[in-house]
Target: PD-(D/E)XK nuclease domain-containing protein
Amino acid sequence: MMQGTRANYTGNALERVIQQSLEANGYTFVDKKKFDTARYLEQPIYTVQYPIGKGIYETKLYCDFIFYHPQKHPDCMVIESKWQQSSGSVDEKFPYLVLNIREKYPCATIIVLDGGGFKKGAEEWLRRQVNDKLVHVFNMMEFQKWSNSDEL
Model:
């Protein structure tokens, strides 16, 4: 398997874990075109690749997951997933992601990362960026613990 193909496969595996956690916690998938309208039904929903507006470069910006829960997350919450198993460029994109989250994302955001291939210090730097907008940086196990604790 070529490196880019493997990265997509493993990245998709992390996204499946997130999707399974959402569904195990009662969230229903809706098409991104129906997400805003479906919020009026007052039930937990999520979608993927949702357009959240324009980023810091004024280009279209999409998030990996956005979810809504009428009691827990009435203003929605975003999840971004980043997988890097071996050396690559994913961690070089962390500052771009963090700046977009702080300046452009419409709601609180979680980053789930895993793979163990990030440059030394990249994951620690990312965890130090947590604030009122970037509310958590989890690895896959931490995310599962969090989602099992009724926070999701």
Observations:
- The beta strands are 28-29, 45-54, 60-69, 73-83, 109-114, 134-138.
- The two ends are 35 Å apart (CA to CA).
- The mean pLDDT is 91.
